GNAT family N-acetyltransferase (Amycolatopsis pithecellobii), 878 residues
Amino acid sequence: MERTQPGSSVVLADGEVVLVRPLRPSDTAAVLALHQGLDEHDRYLRFFGAPGRLDQLSARIAGEPGPRHGAVGAFRQNRLVGVAHFEVSADPTEAEVALAVDGRAQAHGVGTVLLEHLVSLARAQGIRRFTGEVLAGNSKMVRVFADLGLPYRMTPDGPERQFVLVLEPGEDYWSALAERERVADVASLRAVLRPASVAVIGASRRAGSVGHAVLRNLLDGGFAGPLFAVNPHATEISGVPCAASVLELPQCPELAVVCVPAGAVPETVEECGKRGVRAVVVISAGLTGSELGPRVVAAARTYGMRLVGPNCVGVANPGAALNATFVPGTVPAGPVGVVTQSGGFGIALLESLRRLGIGVSSLVSTGDKYDVSGNDLLLWWQRDTATEIAVLYLESFGNPRKFGRLARSLARTKPVVAIRTGGTEVAQRAAASHTSAAATPAVTRDALYEQAGVIAVDTVSELVETVAALSWQPLPAGNRVAVVSNAGGAGVLAADACARHGLTLPDVRDETEAALRALLPGQASLRNPIDTTAGVDAETFGACLDAVLADPGVDAVLAATVPTALGDPTVAVPRRARGSGKPVLAVRLGQLGHVEPLPDEQGPATASYADPADAAAALGNVTRYARWRAAPDDPAPEPATVDASRAEALVRRCLARGRRWLAPLEVAELLRCFGVPTVETRYAVDEDEAVAVLGTLQPPVVLKADVEGVVHKSAQGGVVLDVTDEATVREVVREWRRKFGAAWHGAVLQPMAARGRELLVGISSDAVFGSLVVFGLGGTDTDLVADRAARLAPLTGTDADRLLDGLRSSAMLFGDLDRTAVREVLLRVSRLAELLPEVAELDLNPLVVTGSGCLALDARIRIEPRTPADPFLRRLRT
């Protein structure tokens, strides 16, 4: 959606929505009215006594933004309720800050929100400290500073306290910010998922209409609060009192479900705002792509309402007896939270879960996603005790970096399962470097999911199969699986499927083998996969499961069975699955459903699959999630000896000159700023300079052509190795000048480096997703083998390790090579990507690693002018 007004809509601690935006001279009267409206106590705390000329102060606060001044205001329905501003001091990195909030808006978080946005604005201007004074008795302001999460100092004595607020956000700040956002978001979403009252606008007596279906679902679901219908042509529908408009209802509903034609939606939403409705669900379609959509967003923002949709199937919360959807049938209560952009996916998923007897804790169909998104539900589910598993269907990411942080936080305690979709908001672009060519939208999306601990699946069937395993079985401690079967072929199929999904089949311990030998006939196979033969009854099969589950070298069991004349061994599985403490999944060849519950007397004990491949896929998904969850959630490290200011200055100079691809010496300097080990690099603009440079280097040397538009120099004949004499240097440079003409800029000379394994490390930056760090085989293997892995910056130490282990060749790659040195390069390149968003592409290829370190032999960097956004700043999607 296009932004309908300047600034950002932000949810306060009580769920109310305000607009936060920079102040302008046209706001002077509003700033003056705010200060004049402060009561005597607040005025004393703000001005330490007499305020002086409020008109002059207001004009200064609302002055034009510039390098020495910044101000933001919070507006509630177009009325200014708070301001925060700074004035830069003699030190350009320091500014004095002040804050004023209307007494009627205090204790709702207005001051904290204003400071968050002012901090973001100041940091973008290079300010690193806020200073000021606060009265010792101003406990509210002191608490705001203490709770903000930024480092601060305050003088301990005297009636007037001096403070310094350090604008260096770290994990404490991001965590405090995320918790404030969670509290506010949950408060605002209560009107969506736990409303006290509901009105269906566009309700109809016609059975085939959406408005009728929504009203019937609310009635059939047993919604206990006041329920109203809005239809100008009826006084009552299905026993529900009806009014001509929401303005004429006897009381204001907390939630309005809008089912009117598209053209009537903007006016309807505006009427809801005037009436005081807290949230609207717009089921109507046909708004996006026309002027209707921005009008709806503007109305919702003006009146501080949360907005779901449009073009959605509605929302449901069975625990609150809320079914404000037009999905067929009931929405059963259960542990699965669902957010989906596709209404059809939501309906299909509900049908599949219903057949398994698995219900949902909440369902939100976001549709065209004007406001409420997957990020909101991730916040809702964090403390929602009814939600144990989160399911996502997302076709786009409005704020992927925030999504990654929220999903990672939720996945630490609750599994998050997402369907991979083919499209994102990022278009695949033609790439000039190997790194960027590897960074397709699918690679970026998968990196986002993997780092956040999201279980990504490709089909609805795989999703349901994974949810079934998560619902009824514990997480495994590792990936060691024992396959136990009474049908040898089923066991072989299961073993093959396990191998495809990253699961290992270890041999059982000697003690376990002895126990199995005592139970089974001589022709049984005791090596994993274990074939009990078809001649065992259910009791013997169960005893075999007991023996295998007792093996400390086994983390999970797949029990694959077929019924025989001796009985059905499957009946022995539920008791073991219920009480073993290790996951036990069943495979029943021939069952009708691809996945079904396998019950005991207490209910579903585990999941039973028709195909061993499906069971192995589900177990593989669960195992990878368990491994991610068990890994430490370490913060991104900050490498030593990083000269960020020099690097930023270099990039600014190049951008000011209109440069996009950095020159070779600029590339070398930028990499040195971040401590990336590079080969010694010299430059010459003609053959005489090249000969002179040769005399300063230890031969043999390599010559590389610097040619406009030629990025892959080897393919164009722009690299000559093992040069030792002046004659060869002159000959090579003359040939390049003849061959490349005006596009030739000069020659790079470097000493030949020791041979080693050639790797690729790079960055591909995207305006939506941020920077992707790519690692893979380099040199001639880059395109030939295409063995690469990727993670989004900033990398944690765990992320770097997973990159190193993420290649197909990783198991045999390093051997005697210096893995630690490559890991350090990954972390340093990640830090470069984090601090320099202007770096659109970076390619270290080859990065040569030996047993004693690594060295970048060739590098290229492309930059673009960018104004970095603050991805974690609190603001609603508009």
Summary: The longest helix spans residues 171-193. Residues 680-752 form a domain with the Dna Ligase; domain 1 fold (CATH 3.30.1490.20).
